[in-house]
Amino acid sequence: MAAGFKTVEPLEYYRRFLKENCRPDGRELGEFRTTTVNIGSISTAEGSALVKLGNTTVICGVKAEFAAPPTDAPDKGYVVPNVDLPPLCSSRFRSGPPGEEAQVASQFIADVIENSQIIQKEDLCISPGKLAWVLYCDLICLDYDGNILDACTFALLAALKNVQLPEVTINEETALAEVNLKKKSYLNIRTHPVATSFAVFDDTLLIVDPTGEEEHLATGTLTIVMDEEGKLCCLHKPGGSGLTGAKLQDCMSRAVTRHKEVKKLMDEVIKSIKPK
Amino acid sequence: MEEEMHTDAKIRAETGTGSSPRGPGCSLRHFACEQNLLSRPDGSASFLQGDTSVLAGVYGPAEVKVSKEIFNKATLEVILRPKIGLPGVAEKSRERLIRNTCEAVVLGTLHPRTSITVVLQVVSDAGSEARAVLTFALDNVEQKLLMSSTKGLFSDAELQQCLAAAQVASQHVFRFYRESLQRRYSKS
User: Fold this and answer.
1) In whole angstroms, what is the distance from residue B155 CA to residue B120 CA?
2) What is the DSSP pairing of strand A78-84 with strand A125-127?
3) How many Å lie between the alpha carbon of A240 and the closest alpha carbon of chain B?
4) Domain boundaries in chain B?
5) Are the Cβ atoms of A232 and B154 closer than 8 angstroms?
6) pLDDT band, very low/low/confident/very high, at B22 (cuts 50, 70, 90)
7) Does the keyword Nucleus apply (chain B) (predicted)?
8) CATH of the domain at A241
9) Is residue A13 a part of any domain in this protein?
């Protein structure tokens, strides 16, 4: 009977739960789904990470290649993110060129990388003006159940922490690059940006970590990306119902606690990796 | 009938927080607006602020493709063209921001199963070289935050300062809208 009501009046069904300050899957309004992370699973990539936020699954693979540095910044490398939402993850996506959702997510990740300065692009330069690293970060969603931005940001961070770049020297005589695969070093990750997403219901209620159904019923969404010092890299609110300053402050404090949870999980996982 | 209305507004207001020397100053660049300048779209406007100007055209309510129609409200579509080059991923992201903001305020339920298309063309773009740029869209009734898009790194306190400054500045913009519309409708 409840299933019938849910099909006919999904919003009303949802409101019944929200009145009791909980959600259909049993979570509180401020509770995240179980987060799991697994790094280093792709052996052919320089770095990789798989993140699961409840059912939402995103895998990130980082490949490093050589390129000539940009002419207007000869001492910088490149970090190129790309988010792919294939038809595999949800029935709403069709095969073909990237849809709007994938493009918006790619732009979001590019903004997070740029704003948070997670990697100093100067670290990726091998020889100024001649050779630099370009890191292709491919994020593929394997299962779409809402809150894709949080999962992508976490996957990207974990994968970048896992990246090992070989040492490269330029041979003076031949002017060719010589790669020493035996000597690898980790990237210098300067900050740890963590994203926290909220969905706004009926212009008043804020819930954290929305699932796919909740996102569909919501009247607005908000994503806050924070680093460890409490500095904000991104406050992304693409339209939807209005928020007062006080509600925004509540979201900020929730984002701070989420950052601590994610950082702890990340440190555990990094420590558990056996050194090669 | 072509109706041209050119309103100039030069707004400058100072709000300072006494103790801090870097208090939020609210000084808007000179802005101007021109309406109904294009003949083919159902509505058009050109907005100019300092050296940045954008031309907008609206078509609607019009026929909508069956695949895109929503049974109880209008389908809003936004197309943003940059000044140079082909539209890319950044434009798609901005289109999504603008579309969601407009969907929250446009009374789409008055025109179900129709489409409203907004086409924006960037004519000139004079950005800023600041450490961080925060863009907010606020509503005029309760000054609630409708849309937010940020670039760069900033602290929570700075965010609150910018939000307060934006709320003051939005009052000026709304007053400008009200005055220009009053002037227009008092003529006809």
Assistant:
1) 32
2) unpaired
3) 5
4) 29-127, 129-187
5) yes
6) very low
7) yes
8) 3.30.230.70
9) no
